[in-house]
Amino acid sequence: MKKLALAVAVMTSAASVTAYASDARTMAMGGASIASSDFRSSASNPALSSIYGMTDDFSIQLSGGLEASDRDQMLDAIDDLQDAIDTLDQRINDGSAVPGDEQDVLDRLAALDGRTVDIGAGAGVTVALPSSAFGASLFVRSDARFGVDFDYDSNDSTQIQTNLIAGDPVDTNLNSRVRGSGYGMTEAGIAISHTFTNVGPGDLSVGVSPKYLRIDLFNKDQRISDFETSEVNDSLVEDSGFNADLGALYAFGENRQYSVAARVKNVVPVEVTGTTGDVFEVDPLATVGFSYNSSWFTSTVEADVTEMNGYGNVAPSQYARAGIELNAANWAQVRVGYRHDISDGREDVITAGLGISPFDVLNVDVTGIYGENDTYGAVVQVGLSF
Predict the structure, then answer these.
(1) pLDDT tens across 88-127, in order?
(2) How far apart are the C-alpha atoms of 141 and 120, rounded to whole Å?
(3) Highest mean pLDDT pick, 7-21, 85-99, 122-136
(4) Is the pTM of this model over 0.85?
(5) Which of 56, 103, 250, 366 is deepest in the core (most CB within 10 A)?
(6) Are 2 and 107 in contact (CB under 8 A)?
């Protein structure tokens, strides 16, 4: 059954070419950023391109991360199944196998039915030139979600017994299937914004991100006995075009310490059809948020007003996020956050992170992600600002 483990590993790795969209600071605060960040995170809200400190002129940020949820313990179950098959194959090879020896393998194979694993991973970069009159940021980033599940065929019980009698390897001519599907959305664009001062009791920043958007769909459904790594690319469908994000942020209070924000991603709806005929619909995704910011403390909450559609094994999502940050004179930061999926398609997670930023020039940020049912993740970010 090494092909089963290989199939899951290869299908899962298809997600690793795309980036975890949030930077480390944002993800440490539960993924909330549209109202609480600045020009360094303008890929999340184009209005942030004109939110900066008086000494800020340039920034480059690189981030990479991984999040995985094995809520059904599929990977552990595959390891246990592989051990049982290796033992049975050894008995078949040395001629000591007898009818009944296959039962442990059959039980573990059947127990895999319907189990899934969900993964996303990758990297991204933002280069920013802030200005209240005309802030601009170049960004390249991706967001991917990918799932693998297992479909058990009860006829494999008879087939494994036949293989045992014939002295063939256990995984010969099995009909159980591994199915993988998901999407990647890669964006390359420029976030442009302008701040209008003294609009009522505060300042209004508005922005737009015209961008190139590439969507990759993956579908693979194959018998584990027939799985070939060379055929994985045959399951990919790619579509691309131009789209845009819109954003606004209103800062008010004596020191502009309060902010409300709104963002709409992908204002132009897009539909892409995968190899199975299933359609992935990218509809405008609206998010609203609020934050309080001071020199040493930031707190923020935000929520998606609309739902991000799912595809294949990937469930729809609609997040509510919250986070806080303690800042020690712009030299070090401690962050915690929480993310809840209103659609209940994914596990709720707790996030935490540390940042080191000597002289507020070089920054290194790390974030950990934890949720129930074997949900873990990490994001690392390095940057230079001056």
Answers:
(1) 888 888 888 777 878 888 888 888 887 777 777 677 899 9
(2) 13
(3) 122-136
(4) yes
(5) 250
(6) no
**C-beta of residue 61 within 8 angstroms of C-beta of residue 183:** no
Supply the CATH classification number for the domain 2-385.
Answer: 2.40.160.40
Domain ranges of the chain: 2-385
- Spell out the residues 6+ positions from residue 13 whose beta carbon is closer than 8 angstroms to its own: none
- DSSP per position, 79-143: HHHHHHHHHHHHHHHHT---TTTTHHHHHHHHHTTT-EEEEEEEEEEEEEE--TTTEEEEEEEEE
Which two structure tokens, joined as six digits, stand for 184? Answer: 């990647």
The three-class DSSP label of residue 26 is helix
Q: To which H or E segment does residue 365 belong? A: strand 362-371
Strand partners for 370:
350, 376
Q: Is 46 helix (H, G, I), strand (E, B) or coil?
A: helix
Q: 339 with 319: CB under 8 angstroms? A: yes
Residue matched to tokens 């131009």: 242
In whole angstroms, give the CA distance from residue 342 to residue 314: 15
Beta carbons of 340 and 349 less than 8 angstroms apart? no
Cα distance between residue 165 and residue 384, in whole Å? 65
Q: Tell me the two tokens of residue 15.
A: 């997600």
- C-alpha 47/C-alpha 214 separation (Å) is 23
Q: Is the pLDDT of residue 230 over 60?
A: no
- 339 DSSP β-pair partners: 321, 349
